[in-house]
Amino acid sequence: MSWIIGVDVGGTFTDFFAFRETDGRTHKWKRPSTPSNPAEAIIAGLKELCATHDIPIGEVDRLCHGSTVATNALIQRRGADCALITTRGMRDVIEIGRQTRPVVDSHEIDSPPPLIPRKHRYELAERMLSSGEVLSPVPVDELETLIETIRAEGLQAVAVCFLFSYANSAHEEQVGAALRNALPGVSVSLSSEVQPEFREFERFTTTVVNAYLQPRLEHYIETLIDDLSEAIPRAQIGINQSSGGLMSLDVARSFPVRMALSGPAAGVVGAIEVAKSASMPDVITIDIGGTSADVALIRDYKVELSAGRDVDGFPVQLPMVDVTTVGAGGGSIAWFAADGLFKVGPQSAGAVPGPACYRRGGTLPTVSDANLLLGRLSTKLLDGGMTLDLELAKQAIATVAEPMNKSLEETALGILQIMTVNMVRAIRSLSVERGHDPRKFALMPFGGAGGLHAREVAAALGMATVLVPPSPGILCAQGLTDADLQENFIISRLMALSAENREEIEAVINELTMRACHWFETEKASVDRQSITYSIDLRFRGQNFELLVEAGTAGPNGRPLLEPTDVILERFFEAHERAYGFADKSAPVEAVNFLAIAKASLGVQRPDALDLVDGVVPRPVDHRDVTFSLAGPERTPIYHRDHLVPGTVFCGPAIVDQMDSTTIVFPGDEVRIDGFGNMIITLGQSND
User: For 410-443, b where at least 16 C-beta lie within 10 A, e where not — what string?
Assistant: First the structure.
């Protein structure tokens, strides 16, 4: 009887989801995070989960881990002292960048300073041409001098980024081998290994971020392995990456930059499985935690991959689940800006000291304090494992209510309205601004605070349905148990996408397939669990940026099944029209990068739907006054999610409590529980 456990480490809480495939038994757990050492919360929570639910620790076969450790280390600038070795004349590329401002209309906000100071950026007189031909070999004497300089400076990591190394990696491999041989304690990141892709600035910054994070993440992973080897000695451990799949510990050690969006990506994987169970192919997800809200758009049960994004101001050019993040969470602080305007977030009280109502020393008013004051949030969280203090919440809200001469309730409602506006703005950027009508989607909230805010967000966007997963507060952890092993392979090759170049295009796809098949052999993946998806970065000739378009899959025999050229072109035109509002079908189109995503399914099978029970009348476990609007509080029934069996139907107002989350049902809204335990809320017409 083996167990699979997913662990998602967030800024405020660490979440656990345990699943036994033999009988579909599941358990969940949640405990406060330990930001100073995330492994402490993982080990403590794992032991608590197993003890509380009688899970024999020796029967845990696999642990899947998602974490914000990499992102937090970058945000807090707690990485390594690094060196950069690059082609002569290229040392300032990471500082010059694209000569664009982070915020176009602000002259005060500037790009962050480079992670490697100029004095530690070194040049070599090597040169590779764009064709991959060697113009100047690596000067061995110069390299030996550089190695001695790096040793004398006591630097912990080195990023090696040569011009055109994506076309020929020989020089980077030569320098990397010399560094690893001469400096065994120093981490080495080669751009040709991290992301061998066209565009030197993005490739350089991605490699620099990887080098900056590598020593810290290596230490974190080693510490975690040591602790877990004692607690769960027989378990295999997988680390989630930003593209939504699991990677091995060895890969995570070498490429920590892939963990930049580890947690949010896992949530999207779990959301897709929930959407499938509810037969809702088009959903917009909003993952609201203690610090931020992550928004993603799922269309036909698929989420788009972004070719890269900024992580705290640094471009990271890797395949990532397309997620938009806004500083809006339960711990978001209400405050007055210098111009006197009332704002909420992006500053957060986090886990320590947390919102005032947490009784951990926080005094600033937060979204959680507002929800508690309005009766929307219970004073008992985590099924009684955590008590909130209503009086402390009132005191905190009073600090901003009094200057505005508003009542506590008016102020709390205002805080939540601003929170809603912030989240609506994020959803519009991912939907309306990209040609998608949110009214044609269902809204899926998750995270500890998702159900508290989803209804008002949905109403503001004109959405009719809210789909709440069975365990919304730990969906990221659950998504980790649904994730496949995954590896991405990329080849940069600039060519026209045309029937005349079909043979050359197929040759590139065949090369990607060979690399993927070698990875399958390394991972010992069963043939029946292998899959490969091919995509191409395309653009109109003369454009600066590309759109990633799916181009085919591997067939049952492992041979690539590439779509006809005209089909790929039509997909590009559709994507271009969605993104920019037009597509000139007569203009020439060129390919820039070819991508293969290889997945090895872990074979997890979820249980089937339960039979619906007709005529079930849910019984409230309590009643309390809840304020939904300025009209004042209403006496509202409180239900526990565990008591709502499939087939249950009821109308709001209501509050649905569960161990990991709270969901608000507004007056006039209807709730239905389906066979998989999903809570489907249909908004009442009077409240649109």
Answer: ebbbbbbebbbebbbebbbebbeeeebebeebbb
Cα–Cα distance for residue pair 303/268, rounded to 1 Å:
8
Q: pLDDT tens for residues 440-489?
A: 999 999 988 999 999 999 999 999 999 999 999 999 999 998 888 899 99
Q: What's the DSSP call for residue 251? A: H
Judged by phi (left if over 0) then psi (alpha if -120 to 50, else beta), residue 13 lies in beta
**Measured distance CA(502)–CA(24) in Å, rounded:** 47
DSSP string, 568-624: HHHHHHHHHHHHHS---TTS-EEEEEEEEEEEE-----PPPPPPP-TT-----SEEE
Q: DSSP string covering 306-318, please?
A: ES-EEETTEEE-S
H helices present in 186-296, as ranges? 191-194, 200-231, 249-254, 262-277
For the entire predicted model, the pTM comes to: 0.87
Q: What is the pLDDT of residues 14-58, one digit of tens each?
A: 899 998 877 888 898 988 888 778 888 899 999 999 999 999 888
Amino acid present at 179: L
Structure tokens at 54: 């009688």
Give φ, ψ of 279 to 5 degrees.
55, 45
Query: How far apart (Å, rounded) are the C-alpha atoms in residues 251 and 267?
Result: 21
Residue 305 corresponds to which tokens in the numbers above? 């991959």
